[in-house]
């Protein structure tokens, strides 16, 4: 049980242990639709992954199922009710893993000691685990957020075990990139989800259609407000697939940010911008040619 924001290397180690304990039974993650701090104190941190992205990453990590609970509701339940309705009646749990100092239920009354006591009554074991890697390094979502805010993509990748990413549906734009000769797929940026600082990035992008996930494709991504044309629109991510692509409206893209090529700039018109985009594409190709797939 936990938030699992970012699904970083510490989380992956917990999932590895979960699968070991499962011993052939389904390994299931219990998570929440909102960050607990957002509900309890109103000052929740920006998320590293939206809910859909988090669930997909957990599935790729090898779990057999993900249960998403409405935190505003279950946080009002007595801890014993939570255990009975979620862990016993719904999941039939045989082994429950929680993070250090994990609390649950109304007033944070539930803890490891309560889980152990109720587990003895209902036939499951409870275990507390730290979010550390196999090398003993403790990893936190807070550390990933700090690295992302500083634009340190290399450190993000070290902590996550993969490049930092963002997943969203493709939104209709003004098609200005198409008129410049560089069509883009626009992704609205959720203000609740952290993204890299504004600028242009060498990246890889994956087309997602329902449950189907395509291969990672080379891309250039602009994150920001497009100040050459508009300076007051909400930030968005403009994704240009270097190998071309089909109509992506109605689909989603998952972007992996590999390297920041430059900061956001205002240009003196479309011609100057087009020349810079051409340079950005060449820089991205060089970077991607040497990056691990």
Q: Would you give an account of this structure?
A:
- It is built from ten helices and ten strands.
- It has 293 residues and is of the alpha+beta class.
- It folds into two domains: 9-129, Rossmann fold; 164-290, Elongation Factor Tu (Ef-tu), domain 3, CATH 2.40.30.
- The strands form three sheets. It has a six-stranded antiparallel β-barrel.
- Strand 3 (95-99), helix 6 (112-122) and strand 4 form a beta-alpha-beta unit.
- Helix 5 (79-90) packs across helix 6.
- It starts with 8 loop residues before the first helix and ends with a helix.
Query: Tell me about the biggest sheet?
Result: 6 strands, antiparallel, barrel
Question: What is the CATH homology-level superfamily of the largest domain?
Answer: Riboflavin kinase-like
Order of neighbouring strands in the sheet with most strands: 5-6-9-8-7-10
User: Helix tally?
Assistant: 10
Order of helices and strands: HEHHEHHEHEHHEHEEEEEH
Integer-rounded radius of gyration: 21 Å
Helix content: 25-40%
Assign an overall shape. Answer: elongated
């Amino acid at each position: 049980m936990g938030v699992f924001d970012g699904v970083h290397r510490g989380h992956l180690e917990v999932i590895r242990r979960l699968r070991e304990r499962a011993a052939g039974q389904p390994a299931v993650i219990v998570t929440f639709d909102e960050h607990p701090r957002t509900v309890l104190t109103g000052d929740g941190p920006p998320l590293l992954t939206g809910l859909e992205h988090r669930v997909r990453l957990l599935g790729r990590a090898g779990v057999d199922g993900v249960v998403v609970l409405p935190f505003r509701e279950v946080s009002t339940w007595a801890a014993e009710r939570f255990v009975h309705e979620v862990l016993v009646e719904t999941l039939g749990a045989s082994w429950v893993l929680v993070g250090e100092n994990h609390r649950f239920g109304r007033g944070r009354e539930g803890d490891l000691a309560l889980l152990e006591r109720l587990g003895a009554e209902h036939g499951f074991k409870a275990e507390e685990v730290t979010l550390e890697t196999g090398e003993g390094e403790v990893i936190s979502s807070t550390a990933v957020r700090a690295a992302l805010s500083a634009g340190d993509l290399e450190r993000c990748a070290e902590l996550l075990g993969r490049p930092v990413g963002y997943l969203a549906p493709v939104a209709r734009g003004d098609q200005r990139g198409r008129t410049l000769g560089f069509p883009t797929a626009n992704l609205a940026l959720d203000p609740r989800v952290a993204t890299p600082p504004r600028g242009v990035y060498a990246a890889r992008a994956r087309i997602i259609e329902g449950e189907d996930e395509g291969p990672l494709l080379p891309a250039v991504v602009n994150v920001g407000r497009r100040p050459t044309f508009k300076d007051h629109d909400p930030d968005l991510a403009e994704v240009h697939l270097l190998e071309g692509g089909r109509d992506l409206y109605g689909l989603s893209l998952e972007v992996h940010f590999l390297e920041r090529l430059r900061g956001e700039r205002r240009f003196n018109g479309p011609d100057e911008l087009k020349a810079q985009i051409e340079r950005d594409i060449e820089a991205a190709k060089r970077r991607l040619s040497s990056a691990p797939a």
